[in-house]
Design a protein that fits this description.
Blueprint lengths: L79 E3 L4 H10 L3 E4 L14 E4 L8 E3 L4 E5 L4 H10 L2 E2 L11 H6 L16 E7 L5 E5 L6 H4 L8 E8 L1 E2 L2 E11 H6 L1 H5 L4 E6 L5 E11 L15 E2 L2 E3 L23 E2 L19 E8 L3 H10 L1 H4 L3 E9 L14 E8 L3 H15 L5 E2 L9 H5 L5 H11 L8 H8 L2
Parallel strand pairs: 1-3, 2-3
Antiparallel strand pairs: 4-5, 5-9, 6-10, 7-8, 7-9, 11-13, 11-15, 11-16, 12-13, 12-18, 14-15, 17-19, 17-20, 18-19
The structure holds flavin-adenine dinucleotide.
The site of flavin-adenine dinucleotide (FAD) has 35 residues, from strand 2, helix 3 and strand 9.
Length: 488
């Protein structure tokens, strides 16, 4: 049967702004199961199951060295962490610190967020979610989590175009690393940014906006190197409904013969594989549904079979054998975008929890070649892997975006927590994908250094110049940036 029954579930002077005025010390640890109590107050988030070491109202700072990232594979070395409650306090803390970097929700897997001096977390600032209906934008504090924002937007009849696999991450932290979801026509989350408010190294506030600031395209995916992003303005659209369908056992041959047709079959398509065998384990299709009263769309895929796969008859988790309780609703049940576009639900642990991650992006034309390279390495990859996910991302103009200038396909790896073995394998994978100019995800584990990364981004030197102008004393630099970006 083709189609589905339609059910409506429903300032630095040199900064040009439009402001008119698998790295470092690693620790091994197990992973607690973590249930979340969702709250509008970012400081009350229970997602990590590990509160900060400071009273949430402190701006005095305290040891951050005992703080782990979400995966527990990186222990921040910064001796001080600040949690200001107001913008003025952010400015004061940044201006006074010789070295400082912003910390988001700690979901990166490498040392990108660490600082040799202080860390500053915005989780104690009011999310301050402001919808501008006329401009079709929403402005939020940078530390706000996507889950909190999505709930508020949906309640007011609005939507973001896309989400990552999890809603737990902070807006400023996600855009800083070009975090993405899937969809041939969907840019990564940073492409929704219309404007930024940044506290620069001297504590002054700068506003950069799309189309008005020459540095805007360089500043959005900023890797935390330009300043502390205190507010982000994002494009929004009227709310929409989504249905999610999962298919299993798609023969590789069929997928490879029609890769473009497969990824364009729904608004967002993910292919999950462990690279072994002849079939893709699962395909997750997120399809946009029209609002009640509008015309039904042409069904883009067969509801019983999808590229030789069979329709899952029960909800699935991407990881084999893991309960689907943590996942957003499937089985074609329509629901709001805010409860379907991420794979994982805000109130539950995303993914496995006991994991590491890496991801590499190639231009779309190279997708089939990249799959061939990775399948040829399956004897090395599969034993270390929970699961891989293949997603598509539309091209953009953000200088350090992994989709800069090219429609892209992302090859994601959810590794078992075997840091040494994964770090040993990463150079092998990167070498195999090097002829395809694969760009590594900034927030996940990768081996490449600044020398090889630089050649992948046409505006790389422009970004370095921008960072030099915004942060001439290198207040926001850390060891990760020195090695992977600035080549120091
Ligand atoms: C379970 C899991 C699933 C994931 N799924 C996806 C996915 O689907 N797609 C994807 O692309 N990635 C995914 N990631 C990776 C994740 O989205 C990125 O690592 C993202 O950067 C994490 O955001 P964060 O708020 O935790 O930032 P952090 O890890 O805390 O920081 C990341 C960077 O952002 C900077 N930063 C944070 N806040 C600010 C600020 N206010 N101002 C300036 N800079 C700031 C930091 O300095 C640092 O450089 C996943 C990670 C996990 C753990």
């Amino acid at each position: 049967m083709r189609g589905w029954p339609l059910t409506h579930g429903q300032g630095l002077p040199s900064l040009v702004s439009d402001n008119k005025t698998a790295d470092g010390p690693l620790v091994r640890r197990g992973r607690d199961a973590m249930s979340t109590e969702v709250s509008e107050m970012p400081g009350l988030d229970g997602q990590t199951g590990r509160g900060g070491l400071l009273a949430p109202d402190s701006t005095e700072g305290a040891g951050a060295a005992a703080e782990l990232n979400w995966a527990g594979n990186y222990r921040y070395t910064a001796p001080v962490i600040h949690r200001p409650r107001t913008l003025a306090e952010v400015q004061e803390v940044v201006a006074a610190a010789p070295k400082i970097r912003a910390l988001g929700s700690r979901h990166s897997f490498n040392s990108i967020a660490d600082s040799p001096g202080a860390l500053i977390s915005l989780e104690s600032l009011d999310p301050a979610i402001r919808i501008d209906a006329a401009a079709r934008t929403v402005t939020v504090s940078g530390g706000t989590r996507y889950g909190t924002l999505a709930e508020k937007l949906q309640a007011n009849g609005y939507a973001l175009p896309n989400l990552a696999s999890l809603p737990h991450i902070s807006v400023a932290g996600a855009i800083a690393t070009a975090t993405h979801g899937s969809g041939d026509a969907n840019g990564n989350l940073a492409t929704s940014v219309a404007a930024l408010q940044i506290v620069a190294a001297d504590g002054t506030i700068h506003h950069l906006s799309r189309g008005n600031s020459p540095d805007f395209d360089g500043a959005v995916v900023g890797l935390g190197a330009l300043g502390v992003v205190t507010k982000v303005t994002l494009d929004i659209e009227p709310t929409f409904a989504v249905r999610q369908d999962v298919f299993e056992g798609l023969p590789w041959q069929t997928v490879l013969e029609s890769f473009d047709a497969a990824t364009s079959s729904a608004y967002s398509v993910s292919l999950f594989t462990d690279w072994s065998g002849d079939a893709v384990a699962q395909s997750w299709l997120k399809s946009r549904l029209p609002l009640a009263g509008t015309a039904a769309p042409e069904a883009a895929f067969d509801v019983d079979t999808f590229f030789g796969g069979t329709r899952a008859t029960a909800a699935r988790h991407p990881l084999p054998g893991v309960s689907a309780e943590n996942c957003t609703e499937q089985l074609g049940v329509p629901g709001p975008w805010s409860e379907r576009l991420a794979h994982f639900r805000m109130a539950f642990t995303p993914s496995s929890g006991d994991e590491l991650q890496s991801e590499f992006f190639v231009r779309r034309e190279h997708a089939v070649a990249a799959i061939a390279e990775l399948r040829a390495l399956s004897h090395r990859i599969t034993p270390l892997l929970h699961i891989s996910e293949i997603r598509t991302v539309a091209a953009d103009q953000l200088w350090l975006s992994t989709a800069y200038g090219q429609d892209s396909v992302g090859f994601h790896f959810t590794w078992k927590q075997l840091q040494d073995e994964v770090e040993e394998l990463l150079p092998v994978i990167e070498e195999a994908l090097a002829p395809l100019d694969a760009r590594p995800h900034w927030g996940k584990l990768f081996h490449a250094d600044a020398r090889s990364v630089a050649g992948l981004y046409p505006r790389f030197d422009d970004f370095k110049d921008l960072a030099e102008r915004m942060d001439p004393e290198h207040k926001f630099r850390n060891e990760f940036l020195a090695r992977k970006v600035f080549g120091e």
